[in-house]
Amino acid sequence: MNLERNFNQILSEIDEIGVNFVAPNADDVDKQARFPDEAFSALKKSKLLSVYIPKELGGEGLSVKQVSQICERLAHYCSSTALIYAMHQSQVACLIHHAFESSTLIDALCKIANDQALLASSTTETNTGGDLRSSSCAMSQKGDQFFIEKSASVLSYGEKADVILITCKKSDDSAEKDQVLVLAERENCNLAKLTEWDTLGLRGTCSSGFNLKARGPVGNVFPPEFSKILMDTMQPLSHIFWSSVWLGIAASVVEITRRNVVNAFNNQKKGADFQTKRFAELDANLCSMRSNLTQVILDYELIRAKPSITADEQMSFSITVNNLKINSSRYLVKIVSDAMINTGISSYSVNSDNSLCRQLRDAYGAPLMVSNDRLLDNNSTLLLI
Ligand SMILES: Cc1cc2nc3c(=O)[nH]c(=O)nc-3n(C[C@H](O)[C@H](O)[C@H](O)COP(=O)(O)OP(=O)(O)OC[C@H]3O[C@@H](n4cnc5c(N)ncnc54)[C@H](O)[C@@H]3O)c2cc1C
Fold first, then answer.
1. CB 139 within 8 A of CB 129
2. Closest-lying ligand 1 atom to the alpha carbon of residue 157
3. Protein residue with its CA nearest to atom 38 in ligand 1
4. pLDDT value at position 385?
């Protein structure tokens, strides 16, 4: 395994895995609502789960932009695989950016790089729903061990993850917003299924509900408050990496549509002119989607490079990052449904080469994944300040 591979080689490996392991299983993953085992075995074997971890801790030190490009590329082959990869990378980033005051967490990070561990995230809770800034469950402590019991109503690939990052209240008598983030190794978690994940789309993410019991050393509690981790890393990078996946789905849909339009044009089919003009509009939307993402990644890198930022800058960036998620998810739904109208009945058919059925179903998960309504509500408050 050559750790000195450059980024182009990494992208080639992603394509090789995409063609040989991800795409051939995408339909079955979707049909069976099963975890994309073949894809993740291959990604782990090629050490592609640790690419964002700095070189000195055993990773490859890729940038946010490069990880975003990998998420986008994977989405051409299978939305669920790409989304799992994106969720994993945003959790890895929380550790990299916020673990430095805890030697236990730094050791965990090195182990993650070494073992190619898959990280999951448990924020959503039965009582508080998708409100990341409230927890109803709490951490308790006995000696040097923590204990958490959480009704995790949506937890992607919980049964396949090696590590779960869990939000909870600092203690039983803490306020709902007084939260910490805690790392739990899967072997120290007990997961009892509450709900099945039999959904319209993104079926391979296996995001069932679980009653989650976790324990571990108190050194696994992240030193900063969760609010800081969320604002500095979890929110911006989740929205950036998810948007990268949605961009990849949209780009693959535009590519299928382009093939069909070129074919219609070359064969001088009736209506080809109209399809071509509609296609130009589709491409313009894809272009806006990409520009938004590129700009927010630049903004994020600028903000991270600053020694300190003002409260105004922080608020303004939070609004921008929320807007990225809202707009990317809306563009995705629009692009896929417009592409279907452009291509016609063959895209509506499950078994045709032009089929857009899976992408259409997957697209509708994007606005729900942390509800756009909640983000608009947050932004409306921030905009008034
Ligand atoms: C594919 C997928 C994977 C996921 N993976 C995970 C995971 O791994 N871990 C995890 O923790 N979660 C995960 N989630 C959960 C997700 O991130 C959301 O938090 C969860 O779906 C929210 O549940 P809900 O739709 O019931 O929305 P809620 O946020 O509970 O709200 C329900 C509805 O009420 C309205 N609403 C509620 N509150 C407000 C408000 N303040 N302002 C405006 N409107 C409001 C909105 O219209 C919203 O649609 C995943 C979701 C999806 C789709």
1. no
2. 8
3. 374
4. 83
pLDDT at 355: 97
Q: For ligand 1, is residue 121 a contact (CB within 6 Å)? A: yes
**What are the tokens at 75?**
């989405």
How far apart are the C-alpha atoms of 235 and 181, rounded to whole Å? 14
Per-residue pLDDT, 22: 98
pLDDT (0 to 100) of residue 126 = 95
Distance CA 288, CA 339 (A): 16
Neighbouring residues of 382: CB distance < 8 A, sequence distance ≥ 6: 315, 318, 319
Does 3 have pLDDT greater than 80? Answer: no
pLDDT digit string (tens) for 226-280? 999 999 999 999 999 999 999 999 999 999 999 999 999 999 888 889 999 999 9
C-alpha 204/C-alpha 184 separation (Å) is 23
Vertex 40 angle, CA 34 and 44, to 5°? 160
Q: Is 374 in the pocket of ligand 1 (CB under 6 A)?
A: yes
Indicate which residue's Cα is closest to atom 35 of ligand 1. 373
| CA proximity to 131, closest of 163, 159, 154, 112 | 154
Q: How many CB atoms lie within 10 A of CB 350?
A: 8
Ligand 1 atom closest to the Cα of residue 120 is: 8
Q: What are the pLDDT digits (tens) for 172-224? A: 999 999 999 999 999 999 999 999 999 999 999 999 999 999 999 999 999 99
Q: Catalogue all structural domains in the chain, each as residue range(s) with its CATH number.
A: 7-115 (1.10.540.10), 119-220 (2.40.110.10), 226-384 (1.20.140.10)
